[in-house]
Amino acid sequence: xxxxxxxxxxxxxxxxxxxxxxxxxxxxxxxxxxxxxxxxxxxxxxxxxxxxxxxxxxxxxxxxxxxxxxxxxxxxxxxxxxxxxxxxxxxxxxxxxxxxxxxxxxxxxxxxxxxxxxxxxxxxxxxxxxxxxxxxxxxxxxxxxxxxxxxxxxxxxxxxxxxxxxxxxxxxxxxxxxxxxxxxxxxxxxxxxxxxxxxxxxxxxxxxxxxxxxxxxxxxxxxxxxxxxxxxxxxxxxxxxxxxxxxxxxxxxxxxxxxxxxxxxxxxxxxxxxxxxxxxxxxxxxxxxxxxxxxxxxxxxxxxxxxxxxxxxxxxxxxxxxxxxxxxxxxxxxxxxxxxxxxxxxxxxxxxxxxxxxxxxxxxxxxxxxxxxxxxxxxxxxxxxxxxxxxxxxxxxxxxxxxxxxxxxxxxxxxxxxxxxxxxxxxxxxxxx
Length: 433
Fold this sequence. Notes:
Helix content is 65%, strand content 3%. 55% of the residues are buried. It has a single domain (14-403), classed as Ammonium transporter AmtB like domains (Ammonium transporter fold). It has helices spanning 14-26, 28-41, 47-73, 108-131, 138-160, 169-173, 185-203, 224-249, 257-283, 288-305, 311-334, 344-362, 368-397, 404-409, 411-416; strands at 80-85, 88-94. By secondary structure, it is mostly helical.
């Protein structure tokens, strides 16, 4: 395991500040890659609405997080809302100045951390948008993104990055270095994947996905080129994301950053080769969309462990993620009737959980595995019910699902008045006859 961890961040040098800022300028390519994947895995008659939704969600989360959410995240070592339990102080919510007050005069680390969080909340909110493709209304998707930016993301980010109770598990209970999440596997990917699960439960499957006889009908993504090109864009963004996260959240020295970048690539590479092999064995030929999902699952797992493991351990982490991905996609569809076009539940929720667990498995510190398990339990036992409840209430006010006629003609025509591919004839599905 790479020895990157310290209990407190050292003052930033000018070189570290410049490098981290440059990396944050590249990190939005991860957002662009996910947006293309979301669009490519949906139907052609909803492609424009999908991409517009991703852009709109980015804008909504930025504004809401600046106005409300950043206050609740706070900063490690800063003020927070606490309560006493079992002789310990539990820091559960930040207390930063309102409306980004004092941002320009804050410490360089704090400024860069906030920039990172602006990107993180946008990506987390985009993941459920992809899972609700072809039936989720644009206004409802933006409203859900606002809820995530104002309430859910700030809560989780403070627990993990803002000096909250999960980060303090090491200090308060001797559990390793506390819950570790250098690249946002929990704060971004698991949170987004669990939010996607809540959306799928509330909105239901697409028309024709699960016929009355109980079988699952294949509704393949309309553009594999978008999906695969999105994977390449995401790689660049993820490299920047994980290295910047290692500096900001793991306090890594500059000499440790190259191995973080290498581990990111190795995890994704191991994952796609594993998925390639599994789909080739099961179907006789590799499946492009599942291989793309495997690649992304490897990147997601690396968000947890890239700065904390050796290259060989990174490959193993990716291989496991790549094996799990196609099998879990099939399980969710056939056994649980979950219709997730973008695969966010499998890729981001399951892949992120595995990466977080791998950190504990490979950590040399005593108690680190327990700390990771506590964090995973909090995500599943606390965050998922809160997200589901908030989305369920929002759905009562602003219904998520489009009406049947809108789903039949496609989200582009219904919500935007025009299709993404006007020169092509869009045929209706057999299920609507």
